[in-house]
Inverse folding.
């Protein structure tokens, strides 16, 4: 099979129609170029040039080969550049898991920053809850996760990219929604509460329990749900109140009023909601480190 070196020599001679000029262009001496052309002709079992003491001309076979040879050389150069770019973390594909709320807070920042700074990056986006994301990170089916903090998993690293507060989501027209003063969590005593499920949303479930204990609040849990959009749908239906991340207020339907927890509430030290970016520490995809660094700068 012919080689790229042979094709490069062939194209140089074909375009210069002079072995000496082709050798100068390729910064070679003339004998090696002549040998490469002879080897190529033997490989293809056909004559590519007509050589006389006065001139060099392409044969019909040579004219047929020339456009294909140019394409092969260009494809080779592009392939090498593409591979180097992937190795340097400048281009390639990443699968990113994200929670429903992250889609309205951190994810848009990532997409904008990646479009500007990593134009060769293609992101495959996959919405899933934190537990599922962590499982997929461990299996290697997701490269990066935008998720809530979890207990440490061997081989998975994470860092916080967003910290915000929980706010109250109230049915429009309800007693608390019409209340004009600051709302303390103790005002939720005996209120119907829509609670995060301990299985699918353990982070939020445990956080709310800590806040209720700190504020001596005793709401009535009437329904569990695993995701913020489901909780907001239940609030909109008038079934109860919920606590949601501040960035999720833009998801609230018209029938939901969002209000902050009062300054000075005894739950204040606990009212911090974190969103992390997580990745496998043994990932061999150089884009992972590039995207993590990008998120940390744009958090």
């Amino acid at each position: 099979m012919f080689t790229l070196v042979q094709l490069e020599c062939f194209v140089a001679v074909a375009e210069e129609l002079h072995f000496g000029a082709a050798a100068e262009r390729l910064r070679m001496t003339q004998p090696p170029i002549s040998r490469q052309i002879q080897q190529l002709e033997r490989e293809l079992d056909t004559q590519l040039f007509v050589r006389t003491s006065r001139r060099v001309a392409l044969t019909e076979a040579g004219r047929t080969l020339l456009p294909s040879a140019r394409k092969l050389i260009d494809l080779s150069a592009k392939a090498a550049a593409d591979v180097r770019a992937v190795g340097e973390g400048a281009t390639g594909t990443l699968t990113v898991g994200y929670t429903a709320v992250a889609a309205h807070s951190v994810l848009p920042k990532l997409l904008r920053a990646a479009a500007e700074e990593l134009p060769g990056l293609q992101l495959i986006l996959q919405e899933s809850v934190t537990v599922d994301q962590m499982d997929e990170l461990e299996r290697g089916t997701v490269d990066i996760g935008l998720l809530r903090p979890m207990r440490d998993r061997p081989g998975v690293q994470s860092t916080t990219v967003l910290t915000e507060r929980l706010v109250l989501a109230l049915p429009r027209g309800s007693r608390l929604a019409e209340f004009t003063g600051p709302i303390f969590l103790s005002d939720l005593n005996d209120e119907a509460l829509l609670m995060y499920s301990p299985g699918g949303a353990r982070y939020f479930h445990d956080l709310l329990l800590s806040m209720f204990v700190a504020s001596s609040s005793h709401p009535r849990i009437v329904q569990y749900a695993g995701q913020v959009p489901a909780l907001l749908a239940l609030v909109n239906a008038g079934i109860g109140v919920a606590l949601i991340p501040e960035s999720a207020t833009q998801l609230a339907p018209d029938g939901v009023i969002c209000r902050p927890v009062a300054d000075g509430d005894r739950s204040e030290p606990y009212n911090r909601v974190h969103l992390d970016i997580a990745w496998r520490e043994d990932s061999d995809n150089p884009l992972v480190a590039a995207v993590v660094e990008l998120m940390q700068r744009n958090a």
